[in-house]
Amino acid sequence: xxxxxxxxxxxxxxxxxxxxxxxxxxxxxxxxxxxxxxxxxxxxxxxxxxxxxxxxxxxxxxxxxxxxxxxxxxxxxxxxxxxxxxxxxxxxxxxxxxxxxxxxxxxxxxxxxxxxxxxxxxxxxxxxxxxxxxxxxxxxxxxxxxxxxxxxxxxxxxxxxxxxxxxxxxxxxxxxxxxx
Length: 180
Hints:
The chain has helices spanning 11-15, 19-46, 64-80, 92-110, 113-118, 129-147, 149-156, 163-178; strands spanning 56-57, 60-61. By secondary structure, it is mainly α. The chain has 2 domains: 18-43 and 61-147, no CATH class; 149-180. Helix 2 runs parallel beside helix 4 (92-110) and helix 3 (64-80) packs antiparallel against helix 4.
């Protein structure tokens, strides 16, 4: 069965024709959404609001970083065998799902970065800020990856990003703000 392409691709197809760029975007969206949701739920649990409760087994509190670690292991396993990272049309759904799960699992894990750094539950203590810093750093890396594979590589090599690309992004954001 052949896949028929629409002669005028939509917004998504236009911007995410490249599977790597699509994976970067979905990972960043999954990460940001999961982090915000996780923080909202933990604040609700602390304030005894809503239906949320801590997860425990046999009296032991199970931190959400545990689910994040299992998620990262699962996605890593699939990606090790190149499942969900290819370009073929029949693999696109797996690529989308695993990329989104990677972002979600990364957020669950890094939201409790201070726990594994300090080896004690400091989520609500001053040291809990270390988790926020880790989330900001990794979230920024994921977001920069959406800009293009060359952008982050240039930054990591210590080179300056392409001035033309930054100027185009700045011009687009100014134009978008003017239309609001």
